[in-house]
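Handoff note, outgoing to incoming analyst
You'll be picking up this chain. Sequence as last confirmed:
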Amino acid sequence: MFFATVNKPKQLLHLNFIGAVRLEELERHREEITELLADLKTGFRLLTDLGRADSIGVECAAELGKMMQLFDQKGVGLVVRVIPDPSQDIGLGILALFHYHHRPITVTCENMIEAIERLGL
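Most recent structure output, in case you need it:
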């Protein structure tokens, strides 16, 4: 499962990955993400929560790259990722090298408490 929310006053886009995430879900939500980005200004912050994800198929890599390009085009300034177990990292760092041309600050946290602190919320 995948869903995205935005907190406009805090200039924060929050992506949630839960359970088994499939390519079809990510593709289905691309337009929604584009609409959410319209409420954000250059320098916005992105919180990506993988803490409840059981699996994300390798076929999702290209779609995740497309999302990163959307965030990059909008001017993401800070990317905070919640990845409780580093061995479960799905290669977001590698994807970021190819899709974040503006090189936002990127932080990986073990839990949401740490992520919230890093975001100053």
